[in-house]
Amino acid sequence: MSKVSSARGALLSARPNSEGAAGSKAATAFYRQVMRTLSEAHIPFLVGGTYAFVHYTGIARVTKDLDLFVRRDSLEQAMSAIEQLGYRTEITHPHFLGKAYAGSKFIDVIFSSGNGSCAVDDWWFQHAPPGWLLGLPVRFCPIEEMIWSKAYVMERERYDGHDVAHLIRVGTWLDWDRLMARFGENWRVLFAHLVLFGFVYPGERDKVPASVLETLSERLRNDTAPRDTNLCRGTLLSRSQYLHDVHELGFTDARVVPFGSMTREQTDLWTRAIEDEQPVEKKAGH
Q: What is the pTM for the complete model shown?
């Protein structure tokens, strides 16, 4: 683990201009100022998104922002500290996301996931590896929590399954017990990704312990949990592709309490944002 982490840290230190948006001097200054301010104020945060993905895999890609992860009880303090620097902030989606803006540049301040299932808690910080980003010492989101949150992203326009596969491939130190605990009753999502991993990398199937596959296979064979025929968990995977099931066919949305953590108002707000976030050409029907 230390060898992999040091290699990724060296990559980030040696190739700052390969870090997408951080190639812009304005973005770099913005990101550095915010991270330094949070650190000096002793507000715990973790670096996620593209930068954490590069840290683990070495796969560089262009990114338009910086993702910082905080606990929900640190959100107000973090946003206030950023505001005091003179940047505009807003709580874009009250169930998981805040944003800070410096002109066209922005930072996502994340405290859960879009489906409300992956709240940032103490485990994120207890298992966060140290590293460097833009010349600053930081801690990155744990690889297990990255797999957990990315596994649910199966939108028509975005699918993070390839990220999950790449993370599993390099994660020779993965805490599989914790990863399975993270998915809990949604273990089928993890199982699906593990089966697909064996398809993607047939020569590296041993990266997934046989005991993990056996445990999940046994659960599948012996699953006697009550079957709520009116429940749709598809909304945990895509906020748009199962709206027909919920709105037109009468299925119960698994994101909403008591099955999930979100309120109906929060899911409605998250749904309305779909149109706002569509590229111009899609809005025009092209």
A: 0.89
Domain with 155, as residue range(s), is 142-225
What dihedral angle (degrees, nearest 10) is formed by the CA atoms of 194, 200, 201, 205?
20
In the chain, the number of structural domains is: 3
Residues 174/168, Cβ–Cβ less than 8 Å: yes
CA triple 168-119-84, angle to 5 deg? 115
**Residues 154/114, Cβ–Cβ less than 8 Å:** no
Spatial neighbors of 261 by CB under 8 A, at least 6 apart, are 95, 112, 116, 117, 119, 255
Among 78, 111, 141, where does a domain finish? 141
Q: pLDDT tens-digit profile of 65-97?
A: 999 999 999 999 999 999 999 999 999 999 999
> Which residue, 179, 173, 175, is CA-closest to 191?
179
Which helix or strand (DSSP H or E) is residue 97 part of? Answer: strand 97-102
> pLDDT for 142-184, tens place per residue?
999 999 999 999 999 999 999 999 999 999 999 999 999 999 9
